[in-house]
Amino acid sequence: MCYTARIMSVIDIHVHAWPDDMARRAITQLEAIAEWQAVGKGTVSGLLKSMDAGDVDVSVVCSIATKPAQVKNIFDWSRKIRSERIEPFPSVHPDTPDAAGWLARFVDEGFCGIKLHPMYQDFTVDDERMDALYAAAAEAEIVVEMHCGHDIGFPNDERANPERIARVIERHPALRLVATHMGGWTSWDDVERHLLGKNVFMETSFTLKWLGPQRLMEFIGRHGADKVLFGTDWPWANQKEEIAGTKALGLEEGDLRKVLCSNAGRLLGF
To answer: What is the CATH number of domain 11-268?
Structure first.
């Protein structure tokens, strides 16, 4: 799909939502794991209200298949909720039979990305068993949005640390990889050592308060504003507040537009 007929100001590359009959259970379970309070109910209708409040044009809904049997249901739901304002990223599980075939099916359906999460899908990002999936994603030219660094529910888990992400980039230079949380949540010293300036997109969710505005600005400057995307991880953070915080960073107008919208638009083919 292409939305260039209208001017957009904000694309949120990283949100989550669930079917209405599952959202309350999913939120309750994840709040218990992470000991973190959601700001929304996790439904698509709730997401759209948040987008209206924050003047968000498009949100990318990232789903996670925690087992292979969920891939088809996520695919079907993604087709159902897709609209001018909702761009879903379905998911494959590393143990999915014919994962490459599913990626081709996603592309045929017009989806331009998938979401992977090492902790919830039980894999290590640079494990050789992942190479076939990364190669297939690169071949299909589909975006891979990857949880990177620690996870608030898995605080000491190193399966997605920045050094491992760097190895994936080296082995798969054509992979269109989006590293969440500016390359590695709470692992930002390692992001500086291994990822800044490399051939990888980074998105900003859960960085303003944790990394801090000054260091976030330094990261954007060193990595390049052309490779940074705005994300919130809604319903775990407030879209309107995150947009305001991003605008307050002091980025030049052109770089701010790149981060809030145009980089994601180009990556998504809008």
So the answer is: 3.20.20.140
Instruction: Tell me the pLDDT tens digit for each residue of 52-103.
Output: 999 999 999 999 999 999 999 999 999 999 999 999 999 999 999 999 999 9
Segment 218-224 long-range contacts (CB within 8 Å, at least 24 positions apart): 219/182, 219/188, 219/191, 219/192, 220/249, 220/251, 220/255, 220/259, 222/192, 222/196, 222/197, 223/195, 223/196, 223/197, 224/197
* Cα Dmax for the chain: 47
Q: How many CB atoms lie within 10 A of CB 239?
A: 27
CB 34 within 8 A of CB 237: no
CA distance 136 to 73: 21
If one counts every other C-beta atom within 10 angstroms of the C-beta of residue 1, the result is 12
d(CA 158, CA 244): 32
Q: What is the pLDDT of residue 89?
A: 98
- The CA–CA distances, whole Å, from 116 to 121, 133, 146, 266 equal 7, 11, 5, 21
Residues with Cβ < 8 Å from 53, sequence gap 6 or more?
239, 240
Q: Where are the alpha helices (DSSP H) in the chain?
A: 20-34, 44-54, 71-81, 99-109, 118-121, 131-140, 162-171, 188-194, 213-223, 239-247, 253-257, 263-268
